[in-house]
């Protein structure tokens, strides 16, 4: 029986001799599903006596209620629910709410979270290392990212894969998606640094769709396929429009980086005329967007991902806070995201808290007469808005009966969350990942009683350190490993 550990050994032996893994070995791995990472069985789970943040307009916030999950589905939410034979979780002094949704995360680079130094920030560090990632490094990076996401209460993530160096690299990422059990969109993209006049590799995207998302898909519906395209600037105008046409022809959900700095090379009003915009066209950043661009997105139901920390650290288009306030005033569907771990951790609790603190009116500015962002609104950005932005609003993002059971339990009796007052404020203002007690994805535990389930954290960290040490050695220069910090 092939296990994830034996697969890793095979990968290591292949890397040591400079050989490729045999195709039958990889196929066998896919077929067997990495047996020691097999998902736990779904069952009947009754969460009792919790404070409930449902993110459902009809259910609202409930000071004390029960949630019944049956075979991966939220069956009912209310008071005094009984379910003979169910596993009962006593959630007194806990909040139950939908799992968080991160709509923009470059997961291949999670290994590089600590590569930065003063004067050597995100873009130089990425440029120095991107070409040195092997297929195994991709797998190790995605597994590290997924374990952290599960620990933080993120149940859905958009893997914005913008360094797909080869078909084998894509397969390595998808193996990690299969092994990690988090709901996701995998958006196949370009090789980092690809020439501006070279189009996206749609031939391999078709292969990935056939092998990973066909009738024998190992994902059980948890992962769907999209593409991320280089906006004009990273690609020529001709190549961008060709890539959009190829994506539309294949009915693939599209994601695009818009600018964080002037000039504004993207025109949502033009894209509306071309028929590009819509619920399946996710735009990230777009700080230089004009009000008429945001209006075009609203008319067409085009969602936006706001990378809370990144917009401030990398945004050169002026006041990122003002941009967020304008986006909000326009009526855009705004979701939140982490971008890359070398800018911010994939911590939606922190992203929500940061966004809440940002969005206040400033005197003497166009925001002066606007209302500050409220707790319910920022919670929506971190949950149901993210689900809608990824086309999953009917599946996850709220505790609506009939949706899949993606939910988190947050302890309110810890030293940093007690005593609980306003339920929503407790999540936004006080909670951190250390308070995330239990996480269910599709009705299966990925974290229980404060501990990750199904993740060998020590092995994941060890493999990440090995990959990181090798990458830093290959990159050299300012990334050379200090004596204290080897793999």
Per CATH, the class of the largest domain reads Alpha Beta
Q: Please, what is the CATH homologous superfamily of the largest domain?
A: Metal-dependent hydrolases
| Number of E-type strands | 17
Secondary structure: helix percent:
25-40%
Number of helices: 16
* Range of strand content: 15-25%
The number of distinct structural domains comes to 2
Q: CATH fold name of the largest domain, please?
A: TIM Barrel
- Low-confidence sequence ranges: 1-39
Structural class: alpha/beta
What would you say this structure looks like, in words?
The protein is an alpha/beta fold and 487 residues long. 36% of the residues lie in helices and 20% in strands. It has two domains: 44-98 and 397-452, Urease, subunit C, domain 1 (Roll); 100-389, Metal-dependent hydrolases (TIM Barrel, Alpha-Beta Barrel), CATH 3.20.20.140. It has helices at residues 4-17, 23-32, 122-129, 135-152, 167-180, 202-212, 237-249, 268-274, 291-300, 308-313, 320-330, 348-358, 375-382, 384-389, 423-430, 457-475, and strands at residues 44-53, 61-70, 73-78, 87-90, 94-98, 100-105, 154-161, 183-188, 223-229, 253-257, 281-284, 304-307, 334-337, 407-411, 436-441, 444-448, 451-452. The strands form two sheets. Strands 1, 2, 3, 4, 5, 14, 15, 16 and 17 form a nine-stranded mixed β-sheet that branches. Strands 6-7-8-9-10-11-12-13 form an eight-stranded parallel β-sheet. Strand 7, helix 5 (167-180) and strand 8 form a beta-alpha-beta unit. It starts with a helix and ends in a 12-residue tail after the last helix. Residues 1-39 have low confidence and may be disordered.
